[in-house]
Amino acid sequence: QMLLNRLREITGIKDSSFLHAALKAANGDLTDAVTFLTEEHVNEPGQEAVAVEPSDCEGSAVGKELPTNAIDLKPDNKDDLQAVIALSLLESLEVQAVERDANRAHKANAAENKNRSKRKRCEVWGENPKQNEWRRVDDWPVGMKNIGNTCWFSAVIQSLFQLPEFRRLVLGYSLPQSMLENCRSRCEKRNIAFMQELQCLFALMLGTQRKFVDPTAALEILKGAFKSPDEQQQDVSEVTHKLLDWLEDAFQLSVNANSSPQDKSENPMVQLFYGTSLTEGVHEGKTFSKIETFGQYPLQVNGYQNLNECLEGAMVEGEIEPLPSDQSVKYGQERWFTKLPPVLTFELSRFEFNQSLGQPEKIHNKLEFPRTIYMDRYLYRSKEIIQKKREETRKLRKQIAILQQKLERYMQYGSGPSRFPLPDMLQYVCEFASTKLPLVPSAQDSRTMPTQSQGAVKSVVVLETESTESIEGAASVLINPSPQQECVSKMPQPSYLPAEMSECPAPHVVTEEEMSLVRTCLQRWRSETEQDMQDLKDRITRINQSIDQMYGDPVLRQVPYRLHAVLVHEGQANAGHYWAYIYNQPRKSWLKYNDVSVTESSWEELERDSYGGLRNASAYCLMYINDKLPHFVAGTGNDDDDAKAGHFQKEVEALPLELQNYIQEDNWRLEQEVEEWEQEQSCKIPQIESSANCESQDFTSESRQADTSSGCERSICSLSSEHARITKDQTAQAIANTANAYEKNGVEAALCKAFREEYSRLYLLAKETPTPHSDPRLQHVLIYFLQNNAPKQVVERTLLEQFADKNLSYDESRSISIMQVARAKLKEIGPDDLNMEEYKKWHEDYSLFRKVSVYLLTGLELYQNRKYQEALSYLVYAYQSNAALLMKGPNRGVDKSLTALYRRKCLLKLNDMAAAQFVSSAEADVLEGVNILNELIIPCMHLIINNDISQDDLDAIEVMRNRWCSYLGQEDMDANLQMKLGELLPRLLDCSAEVIVLKEPPKIRPNSPYDLCSRFAAVMESIHGASPVTVK
Hints:
By secondary structure, the protein is an alpha+beta fold. It comes from Pelodiscus sinensis.
């Protein structure tokens, strides 16, 4: 049965008799059977095939063969199991050859990397620049470093570590010294070594002060089991099989030391993860029954909507119906769980082999699963009641099928290739009959129309009744017109000029009596049809509710299993990224374990990432625990507060002394690393040089304090003076308009007049409605302030500084006098009159706004000239800086949607360029494509995903990821390219594994506000046009 299920998973063929025939032809050899099924001369399912009766020894309690992906506990069959696991990864004979060449290069590259300087175990790596990112916060769970395509290991280990009973077993594992000395088997030595490394890893996960740990030592041993060069990234089920297999063997050594050899029932791993099932059925007229042991229970996803449907499909196979000739004979089989393990793991088969493409494909269908599942309906002890309920369910589903067919006739009405809902068709006919054409009578029509109106025919009236006879009578009136109606039909037809004809089709002639009759019939028929359809829908809903409540009996809710962990895969069949959602019992919340990152999550986020159907992410493995065995699985603590505040510390104190010392040594090493890092950073800080203008180095405390405050003043004056300088032309014009006031009333009156008139001008500009081609905020700092409701004191001081600008030298006698008076008035403004910190922040915001505008305009110009690499940096920085401004108000920054749109367009263009260069044969182009991906695309994607991401951005990122994933397994792609692709994809798919910084673009200083405004107008106009923009 195990070989049959594995063969079904590899080939994707569902026909059991066809698979039986292939296994028989191959004499039970899985390799030959796969080859037989993938050859061109293979017979299609449905042709004559020889079925093989299941052997009685299959899955027996002693020498068991397991269902799909279950672990064989028989020592003699270890090599066979490893062969089956390895064969499950082969996509086809051709794909295998291509991947072998690619991964040989990858293996050589990995060997070269090993020769580089190696770090100590769990050492903090230098690319993390922030010291506070190294340390763990209290008892928060730690992450795990991804050392290269090892996210699967992190997902599995974190899920198992968060099982207190499993953690206790691993940390408490020990063997007598005599057994360690007498161990001769290579496999036994390997398993013991792996157990010791796993102990050290678990100990660090309990007591380390690091934020994440390094699993390299344990992984090196585990990876040694996968000798095939075709493997770059193992999947969750495969690694879990191997992991539990080794742990089982390691614990069996401990069991053998205390009890009879080969007694599997005492093995803690068997007790924790393995259950038994009973299969009963009839095959070719012969009844059979067999007991099987299972670990991870495989479930098909395709064709099912939720976990219970998957289980029902796995429990019942074939049509169990009596033959007409012999009512006692049935075909098919049923499975029942006779014993469930405390930890119940479901493996969701989300990959199937595409025979036409010769490679596996991922199934992205949506599959829902509950937080708590009741397993009573699948237990052998509930067999009698469940069989009755299944029979009732089958009858109800047949009723639903009949009702659905009836409803479909209403929804797809018609006899031609195009069909429509019947109520809509009736409505359309009614609308057609009610449409009137505009009348434009000809000369002859004008003479005859009065006569026609005088001799109008009496209308036909049909009484409305609900009886069939009245409806048939109305129909006969329409089909068989009376002589009066025939007279109407023979009336002269009005003429219509072609130019005046209605855009919608309409009847040429229709009387009020005809219209009333048609409208009455059509509306009544439509109401009747809609009512019939609603009745059918209500009946279907009621039957579905009955099915949903079929297993709601309290008797069938006695064995609850609570969801403990969800292992998620994002990507395609050949590559992707794994992470895990694990329920934290002490905190009563879901946590997301994504390599080095451990963050608090929610059930809503888990559903979005795990159900599938929306994007490439979906659950691949579900781990449930028996909710009635908290002491066995979820720990023994009853005090929730105590569990939250130090449950890990209590476990550390209970560890063996050597593990406690190991934790202390690692924490001491962390302190040393932090100290060394701090020393390195202090050497990089440049020494502050003393000012060249200082006459003496012996400053008093008063002078230093005064210097600090004056420095702040200089910073404020620098920004405001810069804004005054860039608007000096406008200020000069305002001064020029005060010539008469200056001559008659003096400099004070001239300043007041210029101040009032300039304020009024800017106020009116600020109130104008902006257009797509202009932004008045670029003209003047005060327009920006007024539009954002800046304080009156800030506005007045800023305007006064415009007139105090030293660059005003247009008229020596007037401009300089006004400048001197304005400066004198500025000195009169004291700290109580204006908050200088607030004043500084307003000018900083305007300075940032101009910078964002320049970055945006530069990015748009470069984009239109197809310089996508240069454009992306400007657009990304424009978006990031603009987001900080928009948090203070909607008018503080530029248009967010415009910036996001062109950032997204530029990213997609650049991704297409990089992908095209990557798949080219030229080495220089390939290198350029990889550099674009590493230096621009991936950093930009990380910035987008780690901020408030829109659906459009999310869709664009999915398009880019799918483009790169589509190159996996291509037969015509060079092996070196496949190797590089394997290195790039984890960084492309996982945006939380590392911190990436995008280089800031070259700084550009705008000239005058007029230049900036004209440049803005030109760029905005070109966006809505077609010609590229060139601004000098």
